[in-house]
Amino acid sequence: MASTELILREKLAVQRTVMANQTTLLSFVRTALYFLVAGLSIHNLLGLPEQFWAAWIFYMGSAILLVFGIINFFIQKRKIAESKKHIGNVAWKH
């Protein structure tokens, strides 16, 4: 196998990892939106004063998920960028 094939495979693997990181971020955003909608539904449909705390639990869960997802995305993005430095650094044994 030529070294260019290995470099191409490594670049494609990094690209798959980048796309997986983006997909994970979108999953966090989607879940946060579900929690937000659940909180809005409880707040608007029930409208009971004693149910107010339940809606706020969903609101806070939504915010926490969104923040955690964004932080996770940037942490993983930095790790991926650091791993790109090593593409093509292979010691060949003949």
What percentage of residues falls in helices of 4 or more residues?
A: over 70%
Mean pLDDT: 87
Largest sheet: none
Spell out the helices and strands N to C. HH
Alpha-carbon distance between the two ends: 12 Å
Instruction: Please state roughly what percent of the residues sit in beta strands, choosing from under 5%, 5-15%, 15-25%, 25-35%, 35-45% or over 45%.
Output: under 5%
Rounded to an integer, what's the Rg over CA atoms? Answer: 21 Å
Number of DSSP E strands: 0
3D structure, described in words:
The chain is mainly α and 94 residues long. It has a domain of 65 residues. The chain is built from 2 helices and no strands. Helix 1 runs antiparallel to helix 2. The N and C termini lie close together (12 Å). The mean pLDDT is 87.
Q: What attributes characterize this protein structure?
A:
94 residues, mainly alpha, 2 helices, 82% helix, 0% strand, rod-shaped
Structure in a nutshell:
This protein is an all-alpha fold.
Write the layout of secondary structure elements.
Blueprint: H1 3-46, H2 52-84
